[in-house]
Amino acid sequence: MPVVPPTPTPPAIVIPCDGSGEPAREWALVPADSVASELRWRPASPRVDARQAASEDSAVETPGPNWETTCQPDLAASARRGRGSEWQVGAGYAWSIDLLQSEGGRRYVPLTVSWGRDLMDDAGPGLLRGRLMWAVEVMPLYWQYRPSDAAGIAVSPLLWRWSFVPRARAAAFVELAFGGLFTGHPVPEGTEAANFLTHGAFGVRWRPARRMAWVTAYRFQHISNGNQLPTNPGVNAHVLWIGLSVTRS
Predict the structure, then answer these.
(1) Is 171 in contact with 204 (CB distance < 8 Å)?
(2) What is the pLDDT of residue 28?
(3) What is the largest CA-CA distance in the chain?
(4) What are the backbone angles phi and psi of residue 136, rounded to the nearest 5°?
(5) Confidence class for position 47, pLDDT limits 50, 70, 90
(6) How far apart are CA 3 and CA 119, in angstroms?
(7) What are phi and psi of 76, to 5 degrees?
(8) Which residues pair with 16 in a beta bridge?
């Protein structure tokens, strides 16, 4: 019986990301069985399939159909990326919980619009690498429908968002915001119609396009009068939020 030689491990094409989750202009071809050699492949477009993107000055055969591609952050390209701005618009669903002076059973819907600007270039070690953004968020509609009806608006002029370096087409972020909520009826009952509004959040931008992304996030939101009155009933709530992000360099 003839001996069938083992199938060699296919090389892997490593596609550096440019910091926005998109492939950089130059793709590095790195054979899996060699960590020392590196061949450069230049596609006609960043979106061209790497299997068809062999460099004319390379003596190595064109990658076969069983070659694998991965996207890794290119720190040099990330450093070249200029500071940009971001618009976010979205809506959430919130439910309060029993915590401290907050009672559960409250339901409300926040609609939000925010604009932010990068304050720095990418910095930080390893998985924590990213950049800081300052943003202003406006809530043109706060609608509470349980246990009572209440509507209002809110503004958070201090929103700090740390955006981690994108991995493939996903980019995580965390944020912390401080502002005020103004309603037609006191929220919660037993306080004033104007209250402090804060939240902490983490989420992910999913990038179907270079400048546009769907955003999903979880927020923990707090509403209270900040002990400005003899009693301080508050609202502590979980918020599931979904929205759209548009960035500009």
Answers:
(1) yes
(2) 44
(3) 91
(4) -120, 130
(5) very low
(6) 63
(7) -65, -45
(8) 72
